[in-house]
Amino acid sequence: MSITETKFIDLLEQYKVVIPPIQRDYAQGRDNDAVRRIRHRFLNDISDVLAEDYNDAPLKLDFIYGYLVEDEDNENKKNSIPIFKPLDGQQRLTTLFLLHWYASVLENNVTDDNKALLANFSYATRDKCRKFCEKLIHFSPNQEVDSKSIKLQIENQPWFFISWQSDPTIASMLVMLDAIETVFSANNLKNVWEKLTGDSPRIVFYLLEMKGLGLPEDLYIKMNSRGKSLTNFEHFKSQFSEIIPDSMVLIFNQKIDNQWSDLFWNIHKTNESTNIDIAAEVDQSFLNFYQYITDLLIITKDITIEDSYWLEIANKVYKNNLDNVYFLFKCLDMFVEQQKNNINYFSKFLYIEKHDFSKYKTRIFFNHSSIDFFKKCSQFYDNTVRINPFSIGEQLMLYAFTLNLQQKFNDFPLKIRKIRNLIASSEDQLRKENLKSLYKEIENIINDILIDDKSVFSKHQIFEEASKAQLIVDFKYLEEDIYKLEDHKILRGSISILGLSHDIKEYAKMFNIAFAENLESEYILISRAMTTIGDYSQGYGSGKRRFGNSNDNSWRELFTKSDRRKDYNNTSEVLRKYLKISFVNQNFDNKLIVESYSPESYPWRFYFSKYDGFHNYSKGFFHWNDRMNKPYECYMINQETFRGQYWDPFLLDLRKKHKSTCRLEDYGHDLQFSYANCIFNIKMLNDHFKFDAPEEDSFSNIALSRIIEYGILDENRCIVVPQDNEGHDLIDRIKLCSNALSDIESFLIHS
């Protein structure tokens, strides 16, 4: 095995270069945006080094390697030269072949010797590709000013078959020739043949020859999947080394296919799925992590990005910037070391399942949580989609762990706990436009710098963190109880709802019992029981309020202090009273609390605690237009706005009680009562139920008049709900209306 720096024409003097049948098609002439950009950049680089005033180092096209075999088809063995079959470099070699041919015909260097040299390059992928190369070598295009493009001239030759236009390799060669012609013309390139083939060639590459390798065909297939487009990773490898400073190129080339490749290979090597292309997954994982680090640099270094194409972004971030390249390489090297020698790095500080609690670890609650943030980033980071599968919270956590790898920080377990708490309580602030500030605040926390009032993180949580720290200083025995409470899946670091005082231990104990993580089915009963104590809901403005329901998210939002909501302190007071009942009363039972609730009057919350119809929703939202003066007139909304289903909860419960006669549409409609050929529409208002019949339905209107005469409804077609001076019902209005409907049914059937 040997490595030499060489030029294309020297390669053809030593060997016949044959692109083997198993290789992919020539791709640098493909007509899509990604390849078009690559082609444009490659030819511009070639044009620069071929310019008359260029006097810098030659353009180096990195390694081209392959294996050597004897030419079995040549009968004259003594005079035959070996065949070089490229494993890597087919695309570059083909472009160089086209470039040399074009330079020879443009500058009238089409000698027999040159033709013979160019004939040493051939394609064996398909017979038509081989024949095209042979015909091209002997073709002399018309170079007059008004002549057709070289591509059209070739296509008009009698030896050019129409079917060749559909061959992907030939079609790509024609596109590349057209592009070469354009570049030569636009830049007025001269003496190109000499610049390519002379003693001081402007374009060179490193040739790696592997003699006697006898490469098995199955290995060849793995290394070069025939007919596939160049992958994003292949584009990256071939072009990133041209961007970074020369001092880093050798390091990049050495590690990209060794240590760094092994790093991401180890993530996927245990995947047993037969439908997964592990090599492709490995490549994509590298690119995902590369993109995370690149985005991190863009944000933290205030780099302005104007083009979304990855190569342009890489130029802005890494070209002529040794510090940024060093940071990228250092991060890769650190995780090589971590994954190899410190595999428990993340699990030392983090856990997911409740039973794994330790006061030295922090529980995480991200969607599809993974302890190893590095692995999850590598597998899922994607900044091109609206919601990154590797969330902003996880990006911040990984940054903290990366900083700690660079320099071991004191009290890192406490710092990562604090960061988790701030992230969990600041979901509204975790946005792309805030990332610069968020990353800076992560650095501040890690470096023991106080977070100031301008922080993007929740101001309430910042205050809570300071209060908890002081509470632990004052009452050291509370430390484990506080950490365990913070790690409850509902609270996630925000525990001030229970009050930050020395008695939090007792409240924590009862909270963990009441909101046990395997008893979500109790949540609705908890909500109803708490409402018997007081209205614990919180207001969102414009009449919308929220109660807890059957999922964690509703409770977590209510128990996390925020300026977006009102009445947090009231929620805290009701919750503490509720928990106090539980540790005073040994026979504590939510159902018993609800059943024993019997107020003198019937405020709105009575109905919420007693009737199922008030809990037929997914997110716990209710809406009032005038809650102060008309507390009973409200809608229960199935989503956060009226764009989803919504109902009058009182009418909804009446429909449940009278399924055979009542019907209620899903979007705030009146209750429709149908019985004995009569149809009545029932609307509920703050102090009465209003009955009406369709104007065109004379039969129902007559029946309604008779019902009024009978005394079931008053003269205004209403059932009035008596109320006290505070506006609370003196009679259960649902029972009142339900009894009236039963009376109407009886009256209609007997009249």
Write the topology of this structure.
Elements (H helix, E strand, L loop, with lengths): L1 E5 L1 H7 L1 E4 L13 H18 L8 E11 L13 E6 L1 H17 L5 H7 L2 E3 L3 H11 L12 H6 L12 H20 L4 H6 L5 E9 L5 H7 L8 H12 L2 H11 L2 H10 L9 H23 L9 H9 L3 H20 L8 E2 L10 E2 L9 H8 L11 H15 L5 H14 L9 H12 L12 H16 L4 H8 L17 H11 L8 H11 L4 E2 L4 E3 L5 H7 L9 H17 L5 H6 L8 H7 L10 E4 L9 E4 L8 E2 L1 H9 L4 E2 L7 E5 L2 E8 L2 E5 L5 H13 L7 E3 L12 H18 L1
Parallel strand pairs: 2-4, 2-5, 3-6, 7-8
Antiparallel strand pairs: 1-6, 3-4, 9-10, 10-11, 11-12, 12-13, 14-15, 15-16, 16-17, 17-18
The largest beta-sheet arranges its strands as 1-6-3-4-2-5
Query: How much helix, percentage-wise, in residues?
Result: 40-55%
Largest sheet descriptor: 6 strands, mixed
End-to-end distance: 108 Å
Overall pLDDT level = 90
Strand content: 5-15%
Rg (C-alpha, Å): 38 Å
Number of helices: 30
Instruction: Indicate the low-confidence ranges by residue numbers.
Output: 212-228
Tally the beta strands: 18
The helix-and-strand class reads alpha+beta
Shape: elongated
